[in-house]
Design goal:
The chain contains 11 helices and 8 strands. With about 325 residues, the chain is α/β, with parallel strands linked by helices. The chain folds into 2 domains: about 200 residues, Rossmann fold (3-Layer(aba) Sandwich), CATH 3.40.50.150; about 100 residues, Adenine-specific Methyltransferase, Domain 2 (Adenine-specific Methyltransferase, domain 2). It has an 8-stranded mixed beta sheet, with helices on both faces. Helix 10 links the parallel strand 5 and strand 6. The longest helix has 17 residues. The chain starts with 5 loop residues before the first strand and ends with a strand.
């Protein structure tokens, strides 16, 4: 497609956005049940304002998201627009197991989390810390087990959600060995078990095909009448900004180029593409990496908050990019 590269800056007040309403008093709107690095909840108004018109008109046959993460965009799209097929995937095994388990076995997950919450809330800070690290050790000690046993999957999913709700900054991070290594967080009454939201997530996930795979496996077979949202680990904007260790695999410059090659091929097939990534101009105004990597695509600059820096005084407003081929 011959779309001239266009740089557009958008601030929150420029976007009109209506949040989806619950279908009924008992059917709540599903929200991400895990907090994930790079979550898109805060910029959903920008994403919604930039979706293709074909999605608004119910003329898209498939929604595909190969870097699922916390899933805020999927949950938004699936509850707001009519699409025949939803395909969501990620290469993080524990993440995909959690989605599959919440989809198919949500009640035992809720029961396990209710037990965690009932035990955790009355404890002293010292006792909570011990419970947290004991659970983290159990989670890490079983990380190499590959079992289809439902009880194992439920227990591991509940451990993951518990750790996510009680760890420092509520994030997921692993070391080079794949072990979860986030420290204990000090919160008064963290919402470990959100029964209504988990039920809502299970309901929405029931319409989705969930895969554990590399993004290339998904993109290789995409047809023309699809909307693909891609939220890969961001290209670092500085030598010290490479915070992508939420998977033991490294998404480096070669992977960024491999993704771009898939996107350029999908553009030829007339698929609708939206790509999120970092804005290198935060550091270097002359950096034209994305203009050169995605020629003829439209590049929109968005304001966002940096929320995962370990030093709170370094969190704040930065810009990031939405790259589209329509």
């Amino acid at each position: 497609m011959d779309i001239q590269t266009e740089i557009i800056s958008i601030s929150p007040q420029d976007v009109e956005y209506e949040r989806p309403e619950a279908p009924s008093a008992v059917q709540v709107v599903a929200r991400p049940f895990l907090k994930w690095v790079g979550g898109k909840t805060q910029i959903l108004p920008h994403i919604d304002a930039n979706i293709p018109i074909q999605l608004r008109d119910s003329d898209i046959s498939a929604y595909i998201e190969p870097f699922l993460g916390g899933g805020s965009v999927f949950f938004h799209i699936a509850q707001r627009y009519r699409v025949k097929r939803y395909l969501i995937s990620d290469n993080n095994r524990d993440l995909i197991w959690a989605y599959e388990t919440v989809k198919s076995h949500v009640e035992p997950v809720i029961e396990a989390l209710a037990n965690y919450q009932q035990e955790f809330w009355p404890l002293t800070t010292e006792e909570r810390s011990k419970m947290y690290y004991d659970t983290r050790d159990a989670f890490n000690n079983s990380r190499n087990e590959d079992s289809d046993d439902i009880e194992f999957r439920v227990a591991r999913t509940a451990q993951l959600i518990f750790l996510n709700k009680t760890c420092f900054n509520g994030l997921y991070r692993v070391n080079a060995a794949g072990a979860f290594n986030v420290a204990f967080g000090r919160y008064d009454k963290p919402p470990i078990c959100d029964r209504e939201n988990l039920l809502a997530c299970s309901r929405v996930l029931s319409v989705a095909e969930i895969r554990l795979c590399d993004f290339g496996e998904v993109l290789h077979s995409v047809g023309s009448n699809a909307f693909i949202y891609l939220d890969p680990p961001y290209r670092p904007i500085s030598l010290t900004a490479n915070f992508t260790s939420y998977s033991p695999t490294n998404f480096d410059a070669i992977e960024q180029q491999r993704l771009a090659a898939h996107c350029l091929e999908l553009d030829k097939r007339e698929s609708k593409l939206m790509i999120s990534n970092s804005d290198p101009k935060n550091i270097n105004p002359d950096d034209r990496y994305f203009e050169e990597t995605y020629p003829h695509f439209r590049i929109t600059t968005l304001a966002a908050n940096r929320m995962v820096n370990c030093k709170t005084d370094r969190r704040g407003k930065i810009s990031e990019l939405l790259i589209t081929n329509y």
